[in-house]
Amino acid sequence: MRVTQGLNQTQFLASINALESGINQTQNQMSSGLQFTTASQNPTAAGTVNNYNQALAQSRQYTTNAGSAQTNLSTEDNALSQVQTQLQALRTLALEANSGTLTNSNRSAIATQAVQIQNSLLALANTQNGNGEYIFGGFASQAQPFTLSAAGATYNGDQGQRQVQIAAGQTVADGDNGDTVFNQIKTGNGTFTVAPNALNSGSGIVGATTLSNPAAYDGGTYSITFAAAGAYQVTQGATVVASGSYTDGGTIAFNGVQVTLSGQPANGDSFSLAPSTNQSVFATVQNLVSALQGGVTSASSSTALNNSINAAINNIDQALTQSSNVRATVGGRLNSITTQQSVATASQTQLQQSISTLQSLDFAKAITTLDQQNTTLSAALQAFNLTQGLSLFKFL
């Protein structure tokens, strides 16, 4: 094959172009701080980096979700803390109102304070987060969940509980619906409730009620009826379950339950014992307010008021227990989020380090490479210029 001057020039230019391309690539690497910016430059490493980036983006999304859930749960915890404060204040008022030395005017003033507490509880039940969502509305978070009614308050939300994914295979509820928190509160002692007959004429007042033997209690409804000379009889339908002689402050026990009564029930007075039902905390407050506003006009009305206040105190205690139980679950979820965020932070740091190892540029090495490339290009250009000046005519 005959090597011509033109062929030599073509080969020299191709070599120079390759050297300049290498210099440009090195300069681009130094400018971006990356070993490669396209998959074609390093297909294997680029594929691995892409996988790492996807995992990193997913982990960051989980972290964002966890942060949002953490904010909502913290808002809920703060609201529940204030709910407990209001309920404790209400319980104190109820105990104060249960004194025989108070006048109807005193009780009316206490009722006014109870109404203020009811309004505070309503405002807390309608708490919104930073995005304007009602935290106790369930899935219906855009509508106010509670509105006042004659019986206390009406719940307008649903029973939904939104789940947020905070890690692969791990979700957490970012709130609790208002029906669970404020409506599904057991009456009485949480298992059963004892209430006087509205037609009672004696001074019998319901005191402590306890479940002494859960295995013996069948969850039925019973009637405790009093006869002359303090004799009582416990019946379930037409069946006599127990009977005995009552003493003031004594305990009536049967089928695993114990009921303490004080005062003197009249002949024919009765008390019903039935399984606890769900009652709204707002109904509890409203019942207390109504009882206090009714005042005392006779001995029997005084007894009825005492029984109403005692029932309210029991129901307030159940509301306090419910809010404490919900707060406990909120605290558990917050702990889970905190733990997962620590795991996510460590994982993200490791992914970033792995990406950096594969893609980040070694500047010291790049500078050395660039110097070598520039030196090679300079030498090539000099050689090219020398060869271009060669001719046989110079030697003739």
What characteristics describe this protein?
396 residues, f41 fragment of flagellin, N-terminal domain, 2 domains, 3-stranded antiparallel β-sheet, rod-shaped
Give a summary of the structure in a few sentences:
By secondary structure, this protein is of the alpha+beta class.
Please give a structural write-up:
The radius of gyration is 41 Å and the shape is rod-shaped. With 396 residues, the chain is of the alpha+beta class. The chain has 7 helices and 14 strands. The model has no long low-confidence stretch (mean pLDDT 87). The longest helix is centred in the C-terminal third of the chain and has 61 residues, at 299-359. The chain folds into 2 domains: 34-187 and 278-360, f41 fragment of flagellin, N-terminal domain, CATH 1.20.1330; 192-276, no CATH class. The chain starts with a helix and ends in an 8-residue tail after the last helix. The chain has a 5-stranded antiparallel beta sheet with strand order 6-13-8-9-10. A 3-stranded antiparallel beta sheet has the order 7-12-11. It has a two-stranded antiparallel sheet with strand order 1-2.
The major sheet is characterized as: 5 strands, antiparallel
Order of helices and strands: HHHEEEEHEEEEEEEEEEHHH
What's the alpha carbon Rg, rounded to whole Å?
41 Å
Number of helices: 7
Architecture per CATH nomenclature, i.e. the level-2 architecture of the largest domain: Up-down Bundle
How are the strands ordered across the major sheet?
6-13-8-9-10
Q: Could you give me the name of the CATH homologous superfamily of the largest domain? A: f41 fragment of flagellin, N-terminal domain
Q: Which range best describes the helical content: under 10%, 10-25%, 25-40%, 40-55%, 55-70% or over 70%?
A: 40-55%
What CATH calls the topology of the largest domain is: f41 fragment of flagellin, N-terminal domain
CATH class of the largest domain: Mainly Alpha
Number of domains: 2
Shape, per Cα inertia axes: rod-shaped
Name the average pLDDT.
87
Strand content: 15-25%
Structure classification? alpha+beta
Which spans of ≥5 residues are poorly predicted at pLDDT below 50? none
Query: Care to count the β-strands?
Result: 14
